[in-house]
Amino acid sequence: MSWLMWIMLTPLLTMALVWLLERWPNLREAASLAGGLSLFMLCLWGWRHELHLSNETLILAEPLPGLTLSLALEPLGLMFALMASSLWLVTTCYAIGYMRAHHEKQQTRFYSCFALAIASLMGLILAADLLTLFLFYELLTLSTYPLVTHSGDEQAKASGRRYLGLLMGTSISLLLPAILLVWYLSGSVSFVAGGLLADRLSPFWTGMLYLMFLLGIGKAALMPLHAWLPAAMVAPTPVSALLHAVAVVKAGVFSILKISLFIFGPVQLQQALVQEWLIWFPALTILLASFVAISKDNLKERLAYSTISQLSYIVLGVMLANQLGMLGASLHILMHGFAKISLFFAAGAILVTTHKTRVSELAGMGRRMPFTFVVFTLGSLSIIGLPLFGGMWSKWYLALGSIEARHWLLLAILMVSSLLNIYYLLIIPVQAFFSQSSQRSTVREAPWPCLLGMAAPSAICLLLFWMPEPFIRLIQSGLNLAFANTGG
Q1: Lowest mean pLDDT among 45-54, 112-121, 411-420
Q2: Which region among 169-178, 213-222, 223-232 has the lowest average model confidence (pLDDT)?
Q3: In this structure, are residues 195 and 266 in contact, taking their beta carbons and an 8 Å threshold?
Q4: What Pfam families does this protein map onto (predicted)?
Q5: H/E element, 148
Q6: Is residue 210 situated within a structural domain?
Q7: Could you list the residue range(s) of the whole structural domain that residue 76 is in?
Q8: What pLDDT, in 10s, does the model give residues 92-150?
Q9: Is 487 within the bounds of a domain?
Q10: Which residues in 22-120 belong to E strands, given as ranges?
Q11: Considering its fold, how many domains does the chain have in total?
Q12: What residues does 118 pair with on adjacent strands?
C-alpha cells in the first residue's frame, strides 16, 4: 500500500478506534495519541524519502473521463503535513487534560471528529488538482462543524450556523465557479509547475479570477469574510488551538499559496498587477484586525483577531509573487502555527484552572501560574518576530520580499503591525507577572497533560530560530519547482 494511502488511512483508522473504545476512556485516548504519533512518523518518513515519493500519484476516483480526484506529494505540502501531524499529537495530549478537567461531555465524538478533520486536512494538503482540493476543503468544514458546536448551547449553535454559512457560502458561490472557469479556460484543473493558466489570460481577467479565489477561500479570513473565526472561539480550547489557529485557517492560506503558484504562476500574477490593488485586501486586514485585537478584553477573541491579522501576512507574502515573499509566507505558516497554538493552550489552561476569560482579570496570575504565562510569553515573542524566536525568520523574509517588490508602504504596514503585536500580546504576561491581584486565590497550574502539550510547541518556537535551515531548504525546493520555466 502506498505512502499516500497510509497518510489518509491513519487518521480514519484512528477515528474508527475511538468509536470502538468509547466505553474505555483511557484506551480511547491512547488510540488518539497513537494515531497522532503514527501520522507524524509517517510524515517524517515521507520527508526522508521525499525524492522517491515525489513521483508517486494516488488516484482516488475518476468521476469524469480525464477528471480525477488524486493525491501527490510536493515539498510545500510536506512541510505543512509535518507541522499539522506534530500538532495533532501535542493537541491530543493537551486535550486529555483539558477535556477531563473541564468535565466536557461527548468526548468520543470530539476525538473522532478531530481525527476526521485531520484526514480532511491531509487530503487538502496532498491534493494534486483543484477538484480534490475543493472536495477536502468542504469535508474539513463539515468535519469541524460538530467541534465548533460541541457544547450544544444556543451560542454554540448560532456560532456554528455562522461558521457553516460563511465558509460553505463563499466556497460554493465563488470558489467552485472559479474552479469551473479554470476548467473551461484550460481543459484541466491540475496543479502545474509554472502555472496552469500562465499566458492564457489578460491581466484584467487574471485579477478578476484571482479575486474570486481570494474571496471564495473564506478559511483565509480576509476581511470582510472573517466573522466565522471569532464566532468559532466558543469551541473547546483544543479546537480553537489546532483547528482554528492551525488546521482550518492554515488550510485557507495554504490553498491560496498553492493556487497562486500552480494555477496562476508567479509571472502571471506579476503581469496582472495584483500587487497594485488586490494586495490591499491582506494589507488592510493586517492593520484593522490588529486594532480590533487591541480592543478585545476576552482573551480568546483577542487571539482570534490576532490570527486574522497574521493570516494576512501569509496572503500578502504570496501576492508579492517573488521568491522571498513566498518563502516568508510559507515559513509563516510554520512559525505562526507553533506560536499561536502555544497562546491558545495557555488561554485554555487559564480557563481550566481559574475559569477566567478576560485579559483584565489576569493581573497577578503569573505568580500563581508561572509555567503557563512563560509559555504565553514565548509564543507572543515569536509572533512579534523578535530575535531568538522562530517568527523572526518569516517576518524577515516577508520584509525582504516587500523591499524586492519596492512596496515601501507594505513594509511600513508590516513594521507597524509588529509594534501593535507587542502592545496587545505582551501586555498580558506583563500584567500577569508585575501587577497585583485584588483577589486572594489558591489557583495553581493546569493538569500535567496540558502542561506537557504546552511545553512542546513553545520549545519549538525557540528551536526554529536556531535550526530553520531544514525547513527553508524544503520550502525552497518547492518554490524552485513552482518557479520552473518562469524566469523567477
Answers
A1: 45-54
A2: 223-232
A3: yes
A4: Proton_antipo_M
A5: helix 130-148
A6: yes
A7: 3-482
A8: 888 887 777 666 677 788 888 889 999 999 999 999 999 999 999 999 999 988 888 87
A9: no
A10: 57-64, 67-72
A11: 1
A12: none
